[in-house]
Structure formats: C-alpha cells, structure tokens
Amino acid sequence: MSLLARLAPHLPYVRRYARALTGDQTTGDHYVRVALEALAAGERSLDANLSPRVALYRVFHAIWLSSGAQLEARPDDSNASNDDASQRLMRIAPRSRQAFLLTALEGFTPTEAAQILDCDFTEVERLISEAQVEIDAELATDVLIIEDEPVIAADIEALVRELGHDVIDIAATRTEALEAVARRTPGLVLADIQLADGSSGIDAVKDILARLDVPVIFITAFPERLLTGERPEPTFLITKPFQPETVKAAIGQALFFHPRRNKKAA
Questions:
Q1: Taking the CB of residue 44, how many other CB atoms lie within 10 A of it?
Q2: Cα(185)–Cα(153) distance, integer angstroms
Q3: From residue 190, how far is each of 2, 60, 70, 84 by CA, in Å?
Q4: Omega before residue 241 within 30° of 0, cis
C-alpha cells in the first residue's frame, strides 16, 4: 500500500488538529504540508511500531519542534505585540497545548499521546492539566446554539453552562438563528450543519459572520465533508456523536484563539 493510501483517511483529522492547535487554517495547513513533504522526500519516516494515525501525528510534532521558530510569532515580534491570541499562545507551552488537544479533541489515549509527543504517561497528564488551567481562565461568554435535535441541543447547553457560559438562545433553523443574533450578540456560535426546515447551518453562520466577528464551532456527523483541503473550511468542529470532553476542548480552543472574545457581562 502506498504512503498516500495509508495516510489518506487520517489527513482530514490531522488538518483539523493543526488548525485547532495554531488557531489558524493557513498556519495549521502549512505545518501539515511540511510534514507530508518531509515524508515524501524521505526526510522523515513513519514508525512501523505505531498505527499509521499515531505515526503521522508523531511526524507532525517532529516538524512542529524543528520548524516552529520560523512558523510562530514570538512575544517580541512587533507584528504580534498587539495580537491577544498570540500573547495567549505564548503563555501556554506548545507541548501543553498539544497534549490537551491530542486527548480531548482528537481522542487519543494518554498512552498514544505520549507516543506522539515522545514522553511518558505521567508527563502527558501534567501537560494536560497545565493547559486546561490556562484555557479555562477568563473565557466566560454568551453562546448561541444552532441545533434542531432537542436532545442534542440540551446536552450541548448543559456542557456550555457547566463551563460557566450563558446560552442566549437555541435556534433550530437559519431564520431562528438570525433572529436570535438580532436580539442579542453572542460571543460564540455552536452550529449544526443540517437544520429542522432543511436550511443549512453553514448558511446561517455565513449570515452571522457577515454581521459579527465571532468564533464558530461546527457540529457534524460527517467532518470529512468539511475538511476537504478546499477553502473556506472551519477551524473548529465537533464530530457527532461527540464526547463531552471534546465539546469542552473545542469551546476552550475557539474562545482562546479568537482575538475579539466577547466576555459574559458581569
């Protein structure tokens, strides 16, 4: 089996991970492209003792460590000095962000994350704890949920409130979503793709983003349909059926990286 055939099923997910890690589609895709080019050129190789998915992420991290200084802004970079997202990123060590996302967003076990990061289980647990403390700090905001399944909407609402956020509305259609935004400005939008009346959550989000600068997390049972390598694509998404920790991780990352967070009123 060719290298491309072995890796193809995992590429949409490593792109998703890279975008969540960096908070930017262009930067995340750049890391993935560099990793694939290194594999194709024979500069890196997949560890035969690991599953293809774990091995691919391991190569991705080797690329991150070797080229991160060129691809990420530093605190003393004049272009980043006024960038809130960049400053927040620099306060969290890259490996802490990686350990948190690998387990909470990508679904790797702590053991697999340790293999990817080339460290032991205890270190992964410590890194995850450090990242969670930073990500949870000062993130409370108002959330709009666009979801037509009542049970799923209720589950998401409970998780959102557990994290300290307010749910301003739950919309089941594109029209309801726009009406909700007109009544109150959200600081985060969680959007399903297929809505009750046949309308599209994607279209609803496009309408919202035409009015507001707000982070968005898409929810879908078919993430590969969104993560095609074509633009525009979502930086953050949750795959159905989802795990509570996945929702929490995606919310934390979306709010953490967005430069214009709308905090919940005191």
A1: 19
A2: 19
A3: 38, 28, 33, 22
A4: yes
All residue ranges of the chain with pLDDT < 50 are 69-82, 85-86, 231, 261-262, 265-266
In whole angstroms, give the CA distance from residue 125 to residue 114.
9
Determine how many CB atoms are found less than 10 A away from the CB of residue 134.
18
Given a contact cutoff of 8 angstroms between Cβ atoms, the answer to whether 15 and 24 are in contact is: no
What's the number of CA atoms in the CB half-sphere (13 Å) around residue 224? 4
Residue whose tokens read 């647990």: 125
pTM: 0.59
pLDDT per residue over 132-187, tens digit each?
A: 767 666 678 999 999 999 999 999 999 999 888 999 999 999 999 999 999 999 99
249, 134 Cβ separation under 8 angstroms: no
Whether the ω angle into residue 232 lies within 30 degrees of 0, i.e. cis, is yes
CB 86 within 8 A of CB 80: yes
- Exposed e or buried b for every residue in 88-110, given b needs 16+ CB within 10 A? bbbebebbbbbbbbbbbbbebeb
- CA 109 to each of CA 60, 101, 252: distance values in angstroms, whole numbers, following the listed order: 17, 11, 20
Collapsed DSSP state (helix, strand, coil) of residue 241: coil
In this structure, are residues 257 and 23 in contact, taking their beta carbons and an 8 Å threshold?
Answer: yes
| 176, 147 Cβ separation under 8 angstroms | no
**Stretch (H or E) spanning 142:** strand 142-146
Crossing angle (nearest 10°) for helices 52-71 and 25-40: 120
| Nearest-angstrom CA–CA distance, 121 and 253 | 23
